[in-house]
Amino acid sequence: MVMLGHSLRFSNAYVARKKRHQIPAFAALREEFSSIYDRGRRHDYAAYTTEWWEGEAEKLEAAFLPVPPTDFLQNPSLRWAMVSDNAHTFAAELPELERAYDTEHLLAVLEEDIVGAPILGLAKYHTTLNSVHHAYHTHRFIDATGCDPRDVDSVVEWGGGYGSLAKIFLRWAQRPVTYTIIDIPLMSAVQWLYLSCVLGPEQVTFVDSLDTPIEEGKVNILPVGLAEERAPDAELMISTWALGESSKRAYELVLERNWFGADRLFLGYADSDELFPDGGVVGEMAKARGATLHQIEFLPWCHYAFL
Ligand SMILES: C[S@@+](CC[C@H](N)C(=O)[O-])C[C@H]1O[C@@H](n2cnc3c(N)ncnc32)[C@H](O)[C@@H]1O
Predict the structure, then answer these.
(1) Of 19, 29, 70, 95, which one has the fewest beta carbons inside 10 Å?
(2) CB–CB of 130/164 below 8 Å?
(3) What 8-state DSSP symbol labels residue 31?
(4) Which tens digits make up the pLDDT trace of 110-160?
(5) Cα 82 to ligand 1 centre (Å)
(6) Residue 2 included in any domain
């Protein structure tokens, strides 16, 4: 039944009750977080990462070991890098989503989870501004390319944050997708934890050796140190504000692997700046592959590249 929210107090109680099974799952799974992280970092990934992300990983490691706190989505480093709470962005994104989709679809895609204690900001759909942001990226990709997530069998995502865009894409697809997320080991462990709690542990595989199979119809978490030897081909490659924050070697790998065989690209990136002087190269690479570049009107230094 469709249950629209009317106050954040109600939405917090609604989500807490509906998703209460995630609390014992998190309590059990977080005990495995440090061993998952150790398994991921056994594979050297220094060539792919940047100094800035190494610093962020150190801060996250200090906060998330031995076990991530219950409110890990409120960690300041994590929030700064991968949680949008920008009212200006939200004011542009929500009306466009409401113009394009009905209430039932938006509720199904946007309703938040309780694990990690996200801060809800939109009562109507019981959700966060970050989920609206990720749904908006997905909408722009669909609108520009005509590619429907329900027709996609396999995805490789480079730099998946805590797993929010993957979750939203899978809800949109409404069916199993072979979805592989490549990231630095600390964030791979976070994705493993978050998505195992949200989707169920049986839906998530941690790929930590050359022999671990990529499981069809599941989320496969792949630490970037294994990406060169282990990454599968996929129909669609997604990377939002992530490839542009990786090293030049990471760009080379993506080109050597011909975008992991993808004939569809769903990319978001920022212009080059002091922190990531090569960030804008993502757009040039994607354009050379045939993608169309779109400036994001309300974030003028940011762009999508869609194919
Ligand atoms: C700014 S966050 C964006 C997260 C998410 N894509 C989003 O749009 O919210 C950058 C992401 O790229 C990941 N990342 C950084 N360096 C990476 C690397 N060398 N290889 C793969 N992922 C990397 C970070 O861990 C993080 O998940």
Answers:
(1) 95
(2) yes
(3) G
(4) 999 999 999 999 999 999 999 999 999 999 999 999 999 999 999 999 999
(5) 8
(6) no
Asked whether residue 169 is assigned to any structural domain, the reply reads yes
The total number of structural domains in the chain stands at: 1
Asked if residue 201 belongs to a domain, the reply is yes
Ligand 1, atom nearest to 162 Cα: 27
In a domain, 1, yes or no: no
Per-residue pLDDT at 265: 98
Predicted TM-score (pTM) of the model is 0.98
Task: Report whether pLDDT(2) > 80.
Answer: no
User: In this structure, what token pair is assigned to residue 281?
Assistant: 């190269």
Q: In this predicted model, what pLDDT tens digit does every residue of 65-120 receive, in sequence order?
A: 999 999 999 999 999 999 999 999 999 999 999 999 999 999 999 999 999 999 99
The protein residue whose alpha carbon is closest to atom 1 in ligand 1 is 81
Q: For the sheet containing 154-158, what is the strand order?
A: 204-206, 219-223, 178-183, 154-158, 236-240, 264-270, 299-306, 292-296
Query: Ligand 1 atom 24: the closest Cα is on which residue?
Result: 159
Rounded to the nearest integer, the mean pLDDT of the chain is 97
Residues near ligand 1 (Cβ within 6 A): 48-49, 53, 81-82, 158-161, 165, 182-184, 187, 224, 240-242, 245-246, 250
* Cα(222)–Cα(181) distance, integer angstroms: 6
Q: What is the CATH number of the domain that holds 121?
A: 3.40.50.150
Please give the average per-residue pLDDT across 202-221, as a whole number: 96
In percent, how much of the chain has pLDDT > 90? 96
Residue span of the structural domain in which 33 resides: 8-306
